[in-house]
Amino acid sequence: MPPKPRPFFPENTTTPSTEDITEMNPTLETTMSPEQEYIDAQIRTQVQAQIQAYIQAQSLAQAQAHIQSQAHSLETPTSHNPFQHSSPSLTNRIRLPDSAKLDGKVSEYTSFISSMEMFFWGSPETFELDKNKILFVGTYLLGTASTWIRSLISANSPCLENFEMFMQEFKNNFSDPSHTIKARRQIRNCKQ
């Protein structure tokens, strides 16, 4: 069958009837075979899965961007916040063991002070203020040492405001007063 000529301008055309359509596409089938239905169903499920994955990826990206913008808005430059340091503290990465508590025994003074200095060195941003250092030392005191610091607090002692003064008082009360005498005796007793 020869092709029907089509007019150039659409306003001069008439709408085709259903007979004309069937004449143009004689191979058009309205039913699908079971294999075609299966393939069509598989394609639909794959397309739906891809669309869902795309939507989830988009929502995840939006959530990440939102969280990052919130985190960025919470951060302030170090120059604006004098209490924030740029370097991470040692205790953020390493869990320091609890220090032994001091109950006032002179023999434990040196190891207790060494342990406290290790804490101060490991977390300098936590112990910037003298009061934080004094409070930390006070929480590791027992017995007579605990009674001593409670008396300082109740008397509102000025050494509670200055860490050097506090440590001098602490040393006067709990260190071995004969430590230097013992050290000199050990040096004299050394022989080559």
Described by the principal axes of the CA atoms, the overall outline is: rod-shaped
Taking pLDDT < 50 over at least 5 consecutive residues as the criterion, the unreliable ranges are 76-86
Sheet with most strands:
none
Alpha carbon gap, first and last residue: 125 Å
Q: Report the structural category.
A: mainly alpha
**Count of alpha/pi helices:** 8
For this structure, the quaternary state is single chain
Number of strands: 0
Strand content: under 5%
Mean pLDDT: 78
Radius of gyration: 42 Å
Question: What is the helix fraction of residues, given as a range?
Answer: 55-70%
SSE run: HHHHHHHH
Describe this structure in words.
It is a single chain. This protein is mainly α and 192 residues long. Among the domains are: 42-69; 102-190, no CATH class. It contains eight helices and no strands. It has helices at residues 18-24, 34-74, 90-93, 109-122, 130-139, 143-154, 163-174, 179-189. The longest helix is centred in the first third of the chain and has 41 residues, at 34-74. The radius of gyration is 42 Å and the shape is rod-shaped. The chain starts with 17 loop residues before the first helix and ends with a helix. Mean pLDDT is 78; it is low at 76-86. It comes from Smittium culicis. Residues 11-21, 75-90 have a biased composition (Polar residues). Residues 1-21, 68-90 are annotated as: Disordered.
